[in-house]
Each structure stands twice: as C-alpha cells, then as structure tokens.
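Why do we bother with holo predictions? Because pocket geometry can differ from the apo form. Keep that in mind while you read this record for flavin-adenine dinucleotide.
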Amino acid sequence: MLVLGGGFGGIVAAERLAKELGDEHQITLLSRSRRFVFYPALVRLAFGKCEPEDVSLDLRESMLSRRINFIEAEVARIDPQERKVTIAHGEVEGKLPYDYLIFALGRRLATERITGFYEHAHHLLNVDKALEFGKAIAQFHEGRAVIGQCPGARLPVPVYETAFALAHLLEERGERANTRITIVSPDSPGLQFGDSDVTLALRNALSAHDIEFRPDLPIDQVTAGAATTSNGHGITFNLLMLLPPFQGSSAASYLGITGDESYINVDSAMRVIGAERMYAVGDCVNFSGPKMGHMAVRQAEVAAANLAAEIRGHAPVSNYVHEMRMVIDEGGSDSIYVHKDIWTNEPASVRQGRFWSWAKRVQEKYWEASHS
Ligand SMILES: Cc1cc2nc3c(=O)[nH]c(=O)nc-3n(C[C@H](O)[C@H](O)[C@H](O)COP(=O)(O)OP(=O)(O)OC[C@H]3O[C@@H](n4cnc5c(N)ncnc54)[C@H](O)[C@@H]3O)c2cc1C
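The structure, written out:
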C-alpha cells in the first residue's frame, strides 16, 4: 500500500490502513518533506502567537511507532500499468512498486497565473511565507491592508482570521485609527459560503471590527501598491496578503483521471474514477466548495475502510458525505462555527461565540498530542 503525500489526508489514510490490515501488509507513506505542517495554525504563526516548532512535527518518528514506513522523496512519475511510482530525492531516482495507491498530494499554488504575485504579494500558505508576512505586519503602521483570495483560491478561513487578527493587533498598538483593513473577494456577497446566515454572521463580525468587504474583485495582477482585475477595477494597498489560485497536483494531471483544474475525479467511496486500485483524498480531489483539513481526514477514513474491504474482496463499506465544518477564529466572542452539507445545499447551521475559538485550539492540541 503506497500513500502519496504527508498532510492530513495521507497521514490519516496510512494510520487507518495500519489499524485495519494485518502485519502481512506493508504500508508506505511518501512525502517530499518529513515535516508535517498543521496549516490552520499558520495565521497564529504569522502574528507571533506561536513558534515554527509548534506548528509542525517529524513524520518519520511519528509514523515508525505506527508500523508505517516513511520515505522522504518527490513523486516524479506514476505508471498505473506497471504499478510503479518513480521517486526522486536529491540526485537519486528510484521506482517504488505498489499494489494499491492513495493520492493525498494536496493542492498546488498557481501563483504564476497572477502577474506580479511573487514580487508584490504576501501569502501565508507555508511556514516561511507566514513568517515573512509576519515581518511585513510588524512594519505596517498606516495606510490600507488588503487581505483576500484570488479566483480559485478556495480557502476563506485564513482570509477572515487574518483580518480579525490584524484588527486586534492594530487596536493593541493604538494604530487602528491610522489604518484601513479591506477584504477582497472574487465572489458576489453570499456566494462565498453559499448561505445567507453565514454571510450575515460574517458581515456583523466584520463591521464590529470596522473591516471593509469588497466583493466581485477577481484580482489577476499585482503591482507595487495596487491589485487589479482584467476589467480595469482595482484597489491600492500598503500591505497585501492574497491567497493565490489553487490547482490539483501536477503528479496526477497526465494520467487521464483529473477534471477541472487538475483535481482528481473520485466517487463517494473515494475510488479514483476510471482507474483500478487507486483512491484519492483531501485537497487533490475534484469536489466542489472550499478545501479543508477536516474533509481530508474524513475522506481518508472512508478511503482506508474501502481499500481494506477491496483487499478482502468486499464491496465498499463506507461513503463520504461532503460537509463543511468550519471555525473562523475571531479571537473572541465573534468567532463563528458553520456546518453545511455542500451536496444537499440545506441551509447552514451557524453558531457564534468565544467557545468556538477555544474549541479550535483544543482540536489543534489534540492533533499534536496524538501524532507526536
Ligand atoms: C493558513 C491555512 C489555514 C487553514 N485553516 C483551516 C481550518 O481552519 N480548518 C480546516 O479544516 N482546514 C483549514 N485549512 C485547510 C487544510 O489545511 C487543508 O485542507 C489540508 O491541509 C488538506 O490536507 P491534504 O492532506 O489534502 O493536503 P496537504 O496538507 O497539502 O498535504 C499534501 C502533502 O503532499 C506532499 N506533496 C505534494 N506534492 C508532492 C510530490 N510531488 N511529491 C511528494 N510529496 C508531495 C506535500 O508536501 C504535503 O505533505 C487551512 C489551510 C491553510 C493553508
């Protein structure tokens, strides 16, 4: 059993397989880095509320105790006919055979689609970039901070959490009166979460912190001091944090198993459509809506259960339901919890209060404690 990718999806899939299957089955987890990064903590890292060592752990050590081999390498090529994955580590290349494959390669950041992104925009989607953005925050004392998503970014939580954290910080520093915070979104109001109750709760929380919201601004170009759209609209900034467009992993894009934006097509049993002995989980799969860690975890549980059943010659035993369970941590009583079934599109259930901020931190501690 070969699991590609050492994020939430890959780790949980490998752990569940190790639990489900006996010692005669070898489970290998392969990832380009031996460090697992707990992404939801990166906003707090950027704001100096935790240290880099608090948001990552060593996969090789934590997998050993779970009977899982860990290999640190890059996936170079996949050959489904021969059932081999070509991997590279530094100068060394090799082929790894598999009987069953689980893709958990996350998403690729398509920064090249936004002209000037690399030179002029900050983001916080890895440890180094979060720390760099933290330095820019320390130097921001007046003018406008623009925070938002490019079209296709599909991750609203850190945008709102950054805006709230910045508002708190500027208030503490006594600099709020000299500054404006504007969130930009490519979507129309209400579309972002597909639910009017969520939009209303967010709007109220934003206005309580005097944070502006500019919808319908699909930014595709950034210069020093301005972010613009192809139809001539734009916004000026003194500080910019923008999530670039996401795409599926390029490691799967030539296999004929991907759909829009190179995301892998799967059924609700998490089997790759049109392929045998392949499953896919997490940000790399072609499901609608935001890309979130709790979805990757649930999909990994479903894939592992069904793969174990397939090995035993049984039909799938578990089905994935595409639900969003999201906490936007405002840092206090305006924190918001949203639960929505994306496939049925029933109205979301929305809760608000300090409890959700606390619950999110507890969940983070639980994950750390159970994997270190
Ligand atoms: C700042 C931030 C805040 C977030 N907040 C939340 C939140 O509050 N709640 C929530 O549910 N979700 C949140 N998310 C989203 C969540 O982190 C992702 O949905 C989750 O990480 C997806 O897990 P994954 O396993 O699919 O992919 P990833 O975690 O991206 O893991 C993919 C793995 O594959 C490896 N890999 C990729 N390509 C290759 C290759 N070619 N060869 C070898 N290895 C490769 C990568 O190194 C990585 O280890 C947040 C994300 C960010 C960035």
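The first strand starts at residue 2 and ends at 4.
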